[in-house]
Every structure is written in structure tokens, then in C-alpha cells.
Amino acid sequence: MGDVAGGVALDARAPGAAPEHKSAPEPGSEPRLKSPVSRHSRLRFWRSPSEQPAWARPALLLVAALAAISYGWGLNHDGLETFYAGAVRSMSGSWHNFFFGAFDPSGTVTVDKLPGAFWIQALSLRTFGFHVWAIVLPQVVEGTLTVLVLYRAVRRVAGAGAGLLAAVALAVTPVTVLLNRGNISDSLLILLLVLAADAATDAYMSGRLRPLVLAGLWVGLAFQTKMLQAWLVLPALYAAYLMAAPALSLARRYGHIAVSAAVALAVSLSWMTVVTFVPAHDRPYVDGSCNDSVFSQVFLYNGADRLSGHVLAQPGCTLPPVAVQATTAGGARTVALDKGPARFLAGELGRDAAWLFIPSIVALGGILVARRRRPRTDPWRAAAVLWGMWLILTWAFFASSHFLNAYYLAALAPPMAALCGLGVALAWRMRTESRLVPVAVLAAVLAGAAEALALIPRDAGVWPWVVGTTVVVTVATVVCNVWWLLRAPPSWTARACLALGAGALLIGAAWASGTAVAEGLGPFDSPYQSATLTATAHAQWQHEMAGWPRQAAAAATVPASRSIETAETSAEVSEGILATGHEYLPIGGFTGQVPSTSVAQFAQEVRAGRINNALVSIHPLTRNPDMRWVLAHCQAVSGLSARVHTEGRTYARYLCLPRDAG
After folding, report:
1. By percentage, how much of the chain surpasses pLDDT 70?
2. Which of 333, 316, 292, 291 is nearest to 109 (CA)?
3. pLDDT (tens digit, 9 = 90+) per residue, 589-600?
4. Which helix (H) or strand (E) is 644 found in, with range?
5. Which of 95, 102, 139, 418 lies at a C-alpha separation of 20 to 30 Å from 2?
6. Which residues contact 117 (CB under 8 A, 6 or more apart)?
């Protein structure tokens, strides 16, 4: 039987080892029947299964409960990304809009992503009615489930202690907490990818095809959520299986991978294929494409354009608009940044995601070195390959991407958390085998603590507390590991050293996450950001929400077939759709460039009385053909509300009457 080591305890039997032989029943004895008591005990979900330590499930449920609280605290008051939230409200209004991912209630144009990212949110609105919390709730649930699934994936290889440590590391990573407190689809993406990693782990430990096919299914569903990013993990899943699947020839392993990849591809392209065969007049125009093609939206606009920075530079799209970026309550937007891996290790991006990067890299190297001479089927080495490739490939993709949002980095959190859990568990297993174990622990703790201290801005109000606790725990870890290195201490000393080391590595991230929850931050925020910025964003969001009842009441007096306001971009009308559920027509999609409404169609809509009010950028002057038509044919509105000034731009309101269209 194995050891149980406090916070880093391991399962009684090493995963991957041969099962223990159960003693045969004595001659003449009756087989043991399941009593009502044992059946009742199985209903007590807080009790650990027989193959796990008694503390495992209660501890895991406590971690999951704390994670859910941090994700859901104040979920009715955090600002939403109005572009996505408006689309979700439109999708919740009809099954036609739901299936095609229509951005506006009339189903004129789609959202510029695949709709799988928003189906669960739309179902939540249909179930609970329109509430901010109903849009955020799915992300809280998805984030909590991710913690549980990551525990299972790591436990399969390294035991309950390693799984629990990985779950804790994921739950306290700031970018994870911030992401799950909003309405961004990456929460679902990460859950599906961790499910794929869990299934792939089962596959390479058992050699069975079924869990590998399941991994392909999960990746295909993840593609419906975030498109090409989902495929980044496939090399990691298949490399681990190819390396470690037992009792199979190389040809059979390749064959299993081919079947799984075919399933992933088929599921990934299923919705896109169906939509392609639907006549254009029976569905919304596909935003993010210049030719009304969902394949262009996915592989060009959301693929190649992300890397090159040349958005919709394709025939068929209008000239780039003067100023079109999606804003949120906090003024956040997708931004262009200098390329390179170092941008994730400092500043706001570092405070989101870099807390466990150095320890995870040390753990990755340590596992690969320590297990280098093990048999091909060694599950530890395969796990290091899986999670390490996930981390490195995703990191490299983001490093080369021209456009980046901070919450994208949440995809790095599961592999970093898993590697940290595996690393600490392996250090415990090897505590008596190598004197290099305390050296590696010391290196990881000192480097990780130094990085954590460097990430904390000096003007953060909790700076003395964070520094003080981090230094105290780090010094205690150093003293303990030096003693471990110089002597052959008893078992409890190694437990204490590893527990202190884990605490030193997690304490900085825990402080950052705790302050983020206390300050009500969300996906577009960063830990320790300016208090003024936070207060301004919250005040803006509360002001916007306070105006929703008035907007909804006014919208109720307008015929459902008429656009209350027509603008160049989806971003400019998203709040109106979110607040009212009524038609606000974006004639150029998210960027204002796509020809979702041609000039001839626009004039016909005016002639039919479905377009009256238009909001046109006059400084700088719009270059959208439909808006140019408005300037030439419609009447400028006078009065105080006729001009709108926002983010350095000036808009004017115009009234278009049927006679204006001839």
C-alpha cells in the first residue's frame, strides 16, 4: 500500500500498476449481497469510492464549492460582453435564430463565431427568462465542472493527492476565476478540452479505442465552441496515446488515432456542412465572411486573419470602417499586441495567467528526466507529454497571434495546473530515491515565488500582505528543503516540505484571485488593476442596466418588423438588442465590412418601412456604402439627442422615410 501525505497524499495503489488480487471466498460461504444500507451509502456522493482515500471526495467537493462561489459571487452585477450577450438574447427568441446563431432578432446576420459557443447560454435564457445571472450561470457551472474533470484526469495517473492539487491550482488561477465570472465562451471550450484530455488519459492507460474516440468527440464539440483553437490539443492527445497505449502494435495505435481524428473532424465540420447546404435566403448572412460562407468565417476571419492581422482583406467586403471595435461595460476590446512569448510573463497578461508557468515547466522537465528510462507504457511520462504539448502549442499559438484578449490565456491554466499536481506527486514518490528532489523543489519554489512577487504592482492595496505571506511561506519552504537535502529526515518532514512548497507557489495566485472576486472583476479585467478603472466600469455598467427598462418600454411601442435603430456594426446596436430583445439592424456585421445588407436591399427595407432611424459615423466619416446612402437620401435629425459622442467618434442620427428610397 502506498502513502498518504497530507495535502499531497497519493492513492493507496499507484495508477497503472497491476490490480491487487482479492482473496477468494471461503469454501461454503455465501456470496456477499448488497444490503439496503450499502445501496443507501452509494447515494452519499460526498463519500470517496473504495479505491480512493476517505478524504479525497470531501476535499474535492470543498474545492469545487469554493470555486463555484468565487465564480458566481455577484454574478448578477458583473458587466457582460454586450456583443455576445445581445446575440444570446436574439438566439433565445426563436429556434431559427438559435440554430443559425443569429445576432439580431430578425435573423439578418449571424454572430461572427460558431453558435455552439452560445447555445447553452441561450437555453439558460429560455429556461429562466432574461436576467444577467441567467447568461453568466452556464459559465459558473462549466468552470466548476472543469475543476472536477481535471481532478479525475490527473488522479488516473498520479493518485488523489495529485488530482486534488491540480484542482486547487486551476481553481485559484486568476484568469480562470475571471473568465468564469462572465459570458465568454472559453469556459465551455476549456471544459470540453479537459474532458478530451481525461478521455485520452483513459485511452493511453487502457489501450482501448472507445475513450480515444470519445476524446475526438469532445474536441469536435470544442470546435463548435471556439473553432480552430480546439484542434491545438489534438497533437498532444495523440502523441500520448501513440507513446503509451499498452499491448498494441504501432500500426493499431495509428489506426485508433485515425478513427479518433475522423470523429473529431466529422463533428467539427458537421454544423458548418449543414449550414452550407441551406439556401442563403433561408438563413442569416454569415458574419466574418465576404462571401456568406461559414468556412470563410472559421478558417479565414477567425483563423488566418488572427495571425496576420489583416481582417477581411478579401474580395466582396467593403472598405474597412473608420472605427469599429466591440466594447463592453469596462471598455475592453480585442487588441493588437506585439508578438512574442514574453508578453505573457509580465504586466496585465502576466497577472492573469503567469503565476504557475515556471513551476509547471520545472515539473514538466523533472517528470521527463525522472521517467526517461521507464517502459514505453509509463503513464507519468505520457501525462507529461500530453499536458506539456498542450501548454507549449497553445502558448506558441497565442505568441504568434496578432489579436489577443486576456481571457484567451485561460486555455493555459489546465495544463499548468495538471503539471504542478503531477510534479509534486512525483517528488513525494521519489523522496527517498534521489537527493535531487529537494533541489528541484527549491528551484521551482524560488523561481515561482520570485515571478509571483514581480507580478504584484507596488500600488496594490494588499501588496504588504501578499509579499509578507509569500516570503514567510517561501522561507519556511527553503529551510525545510535544506534540512531535507542535508539529512535523511523522517517521512513527515518531506510531507511538510512539499506542502509548504505547494503553498508558496499557490499563495500569490490565490491572493490575486481573492482580490479579483472581492472587487467584482470579470473576463476583461486584470488582477490589481486601477481602482479608478474598476469603479468607472462598474458605474458605467450599472448606469446602462438602469436604462434598460426605459429602452424596453419604448421598444414595445415599435412594430416588431421595424428596426428601432440601424447602424454600421453589430457592436453599435448590441446593447439595444440586449436591453430590449427588439430588432436593431447592423448592416455590416461585427466589423462593419461584410455585405450582409447590400445597398439595394437597404433601399428596399427603407421603402417597406422596416428601416427608419439610422446612426451614422460623421467624424470620422463612414465609408460603408449603406451609410453613405443614408447621408445622401435621408434627413438629419436635429436636437440634443441627434449627436452621439463616444470613444473619439461622433455619430449623427438620420430619419429615413419610404419616399426617400424612391
Report:
1. 89
2. 292
3. 998 889 999 899
4. strand 643-646
5. 418
6. 84, 185, 188, 189, 224, 225, 226
| Nine-digit cell string for 210 | 472507445
Q: Is the pLDDT of residue 86 over 90?
A: yes
Question: 515: part of which helix (H) or strand (E)?
Answer: helix 491-518
Q: Give the single-character DSSP code of 109.
A: B
> What is 91-104 written as a DSSP string?
HTT-HHHHHHTBSS
User: Residue 582 has which C-alpha cell?
Assistant: 427588439
Q: Are 371 and 384 in contact (CB under 8 A)?
A: yes
Q: pTM for this one?
A: 0.89
Strand pairing of 566-567 and 613-619?
parallel
Q: What is the pLDDT of residues 396-411, one digit of tens each?
A: 988 887 777 889 999 9
- Find, among 650, 566, 591, the residue nearest to 319 by Cα: 591
Vertex 415 angle, CA 384 and 391, to 5°: 85
Task: Indicate whether 469 pLDDT > 80.
Answer: yes
User: 418 Cβ partners below 8 Å, 6+ apart?
Assistant: 150, 153, 154, 166, 197, 383, 387
Report the 10 Å Cβ neighbour count for 44.
Answer: 8
Report the pLDDT value the prediction gives residue 319, as an integer from 0 to 100.
65
DSSP line for 162-206: HHHHHHHHHHH-HHHHHHTTTT-THHHHHHHHHHHHHHHHHHHHH
Buried-state track 390-429, b at ≥16 Cβ within 10 A, e below 16:
bbbbbbebbeebbbbbbbbbbbbbbbbbbbbbbbbbbbbb
Whether the CA torsion 352, 358, 359, 365 is positive or negative: it is positive
**Residue 238 to residues 16, 170, 235, 358, 469: CA-CA distances in angstroms?**
19, 24, 5, 25, 42
| Residue 337's pLDDT band (cuts 50, 70, 90) | low
User: Could you tell me the three cell numbers for 347?
Assistant: 504586466
Tens-place pLDDT, residues 566-620: 999 999 999 999 999 999 999 999 988 899 998 999 999 999 999 999 999 998 8
Count the neighbouring beta carbons within 10 Å of the beta carbon of residue 191: 27
Tell me the three state secondary structure of residue 593.
coil
Least Cα distance to 419 among 474, 376, 381, 371 occurs for 381
Give me the pLDDT at residue 486, please.
77
pLDDT at site 281 = 92
Q: Is the pLDDT of residue 3 over 60?
A: no
Q: Between these two residues, 481 and 137, which has the higher pLDDT value?
A: 137
Asked if 623 and 318 touch (Cβ cutoff 8 Å), the reply is: yes
SS3 of residue 615 by DSSP: strand
What is the average per-residue pLDDT within 114-124? Answer: 95
Q: What mean pLDDT is predicted for residues 454-469?
A: 88
* pLDDT at res. 52: 83
Any residues with CB less than 8 A from the CB of 237 and at least 6 apart, and which? 196, 197, 200, 212, 215, 219, 260, 386
| Residue 407 near residue 349 (C-beta atoms within 8 A) | no
Element at 586 (helix H, strand E): strand 585-586
User: How far apart are the C-alpha atoms of 379 and 42, rounded to whole Å?
Assistant: 30
The cell for 521 is: 472583476
